[in-house]
Write a structure and sequence with these properties.
The chain is built from 14 helices and five strands. The longest helix has 22 residues. 48% of the residues lie in helices and 7% in strands. It comes from Sphingobium scionense.
């Protein structure tokens, strides 16, 4: 457990870490949440090597998470840490309007994030893949790979039961390119230790980093979302509804605590007026299909983007709600 009254000191194996990582590129995956933030702070305090920090932006993080991003970026700048925000960039759009976020991807394909279907390809596509792509083009990684070595990648799984389950899922995963390290587990830090470390650094504690379209979102977290997020959740479920067979919505299936549809929960808890919910369900998917049909006849370089349609949707429902 981290003791905020004591300065960071080297762990018993830190000298070994320094020797093993001498000249080896070290990348930290920063998810903009508590665990990975504390991991980076303590890693740097221990004087361990860190070549760069990578953050994958899905485009659907909570407003509070995006507000914390520049705060920690300034901290990294003060500690002379190279850092980059990376994003998945589609290369071919066929006849679709160009899209650049997980939300836009779901609306384009009339589907839900893959986690709602029991898969995790959205994380692979929008988080892991853009980080790996950046490293693939990075000189230090290319040089170490040419020598038969690996890039060290730091991942912020803590010692709490929840992260222990996530770690167990990954344990034994072997890569020809990466040596995955889990410093928080080596230090036996749980989430409370991570929170204490961030506060001791004089930084605000970020909220849990998670997409607001994610199945893992709790009902208490959904209830704190701003209206514009709730409207887009309704739109995503309404757009995907004709193709849903085995799942009810973004939460997949109902439990005793909540329905499988986030729209139903929003309606039941009166988080938006019923008339507004009904108007989105009845009109927005049809308008979106018409937009896609028109866009298909426009050359891709001149084609309006999905983001432009979403901006128009947001402006329209804001006017109706006013």
């Amino acid at each position: 457990m981290y003791d905020p009254m004591r300065p960071p000191i080297a762990a018993a194996n830190d000298d070994g870490c320094l020797a093993a990582m001498s000249g080896v590129p070290v990348i930290a995956a920063w998810g903009m949440g508590v665990d990975s933030t504390a991991m980076i702070i303590e890693w740097v305090a221990r004087g361990l090597p860190l070549s760069a920090v990578l953050t994958a932006d899905t485009g659907v993080e909570r407003e509070e998470t995006y507000a914390f991003l520049p705060i920690f970026q300034r901290w990294m700048d003060r500690h002379h840490i190279e850092h980059h925000v990376v994003r998945y960039v589609p290369k071919r759009f066929k006849h679709w309007p160009p899209y650049f976020s997980l939300l836009e991807n779901c609306l384009t394909n009339a589907t839900l994030p893959s986690i709602s279907f029991g898969r995790h390809s959205c994380s692979q596509k929008w988080k892991i893949q853009p980080q790996d792509q950046w490293v693939n083009e990075w000189g230090p990684a290319q040089r170490i790979w040419a020598q038969g070595g690996k890039v060290v990648k730091l991942i912020g799984y803590d010692s709490s039961p929840a992260d222990s389950r996530r770690y167990a899922h990954r344990e034994g995963h072997i890569s020809d390119l990466y040596d995955y390290q889990y410093p928080l587990r080596d230090w036996h830090w749980d989430r409370e230790a991570c929170i204490a470390r961030i506060r001791a650094e004089g930084l605000p504690v970020p909220i849990k980093s998670a997409c607001w379209l994610c199945l893992a979102q709790k009902t208490s977290e959904l209830m704190t979302l701003p209206p514009w997020c709730l409207r887009l959740i309704i739109l995503v479920e309404a757009r995907a509804a004709p193709r849903l067979v085995t799942v009810e919505g973004l939460w997949r299936t109902s439990t005793r605590e909540r329905p499988g549809s986030m729209t139903q929960f929003i309606r039941e808890r009166a988080l938006l007026p019923p008339a507004e919910i009904d108007a989105i369900i009845a009109g927005a998917p049809v308008d979106l299909i018409d937009f896609q049909r028109v866009a298909a006849n426009i050359p891709v370089r001149e084609r309006p983007t999905m983001r432009e349609w979403i901006d128009r949707f947001n402006e329209g429902v804001e006017r109706l709600a006013a």
